[in-house]
Amino acid sequence: MDAKVTRRLVNVCTAIGIVLLIILAVAGFRSGILTNEEKLQAFLDSCYPFGPLVFLVIQVAQVVMSFIPGGITLAAGVVCFGPFGGFFFNYLGILLGSCVNFFLARRFGKELVRGLVSDKTYEKTSHWLNHPNFDRAFFIAILLPGFPDDFLCLVAGLTEMKFRRFLWILLLGKPLTIAAYSFGFTGIQAVFENFLG
After folding, report:
1. Is the peptide bond before 49 cis (omega within 30 degrees of 0)?
2. pTM of this structure
C-alpha cells in the first residue's frame, strides 16, 4: 500500500471516528447520560463488565468534544469506580483524549482547530504557536487547574513540539489537576492526612 492510499485510509477512518463520536455525544445528551451524573452511573452499571471500557470512551469523547461537561464525567468516574479507580480511569481517558487532540491538530491543522473553537478563543491563543516559551507555558497550564487544557492540546499539535515532550508534560502535569477534580481538594487533604497520620 503506497503512502497516498495510507493517508486517505487514515483520513477516512479519522472522519468515521469523529462522526461516530458526534452521534454518540448527541445520543448521550438526548438520553441525559452526559448531563446527569446518576444517569451516567446507571448507564455504566448496565454495561457490566465493560463499564470501565465504556467510561474510557466517554472520557476520551469528553476531551475531544469540549461541549460535553467534563465535571459530570470526572465525578461519575469516582462514584462508579471509587476514589482511586476513578482517578485511574479519569486520568487514562483524559490522557488518551489529549493525545487524540494533539494528533488531530497535527494531522488536520489550523482549519480543524478553528472549526472547533470560537474565533475569539483562537485569536487569544494563536500568538503562542511560534512563541519560544510555549513548552514551559503549556506545562504550567497543564499543571494548574482552570486552564482550557483540551484546547491547549490542540494548540500544542499546531506547534513544532515533539509528541514525546507533549506526552511527558501530560504524564507529569495532569495527575495533580485530575486528582483535584476527581477527589476534590478536601479529598486530597484527607488522603494526605491519613497517609501522614
Report:
1. yes
2. 0.72
**With bands split at pLDDT 50, 70 and 90, how would you rate the model's confidence at 186?**
very low
Spatial distance between the Cα atoms of 150 and 23, rounded to a whole number of angstroms: 20
Domain regions of the chain by residue span: 3-196
In single-letter form, the type of residue at position 124 comes to K
Type of residue numbered 61: A
Report d(CA 153, CA 130) in Å as an integer: 15
Nearest CA to 17 out of 77, 98, 78, 100 is that of: 100
Residue with grid cell 485569536, as numbered in its chain: 123
Measured CA to CA, the distance from residue 35 to residue 169 in angstroms comes to 30
The angle that helices 70-116 and 37-46 make with each other, rounded to 10 degrees, is 100
- Quick check: 90 and 55 in contact, CB under 8 A? no
> What spatial distance separates the first Cα and last Cα of the chain, rounded to whole Å?
61
What pLDDT digit, counting tens, does each position of 70-121 carry?
Answer: 677 777 777 778 778 888 888 999 899 999 989 888 888 887 777 777 777 7
